[in-house]
């Protein structure tokens, strides 16, 4: 019963995210609204971590399974994706390295700043 309650809390936050998506005029996905709302509720203590911990762990554990439909969708629309495969691949590789580099630089800056060794 505890697991069901935790899952319902997460679903309620997701529903509020969907409602915010339909009400607010911003081009932000409903899942982002839900995650930000959950973060704020956890940060302020309105929802305690223990109230959603077990269901959250379960959802993280089954996350790889959730990518199967997306992979099947990519395979079924291969004829549409094939002409743009090279540009999308190049953009993806460039983006990955850009994000890795910027994350590394920011992380090093924060580590040095926290140690008091800023240059």
Automatic annotation (TrEMBL):
Keyword Cell membrane on entry: yes
Organism listed in the record: Pseudobutyrivibrio xylanivorans DSM 14809
Keywords tagged on the record: Cell membrane, Membrane, Transmembrane, Transmembrane helix
InterPro entries for the chain: LrgA/CidA
Coiled coil regions in record: none
Protein name: Holin-like protein
Transmembrane segments: 7-24, 30-47, 59-78, 84-111
Localization of this protein: Cell membrane
Protein's membrane topology: Multi-pass membrane protein
């Amino acid at each position: 019963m505890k697991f069901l309650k935790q899952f319902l809390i997460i679903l309620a936050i997701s529903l509020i995210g969907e409602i915010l998506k339909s009400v607010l005029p911003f081009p932000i996905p409903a899942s982002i609204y839900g995650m930000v709302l959950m973060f704020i509720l956890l940060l302020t203590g309105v929802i305690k971590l223990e109230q959603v911990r077990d269901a959250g762990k379960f959802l993280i554990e089954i996350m790889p399974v959730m990518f199967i439909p997306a992979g099947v969708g990519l395979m079924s629309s291969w004829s549409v994706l094939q002409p743009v495969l090279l540009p999308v691949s190049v953009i993806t590789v460039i983006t990955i390295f850009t994000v890795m580099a910027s994350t590394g630089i920011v992380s090093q800056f924060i580590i040095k700043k926290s140690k008091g060794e800023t240059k």
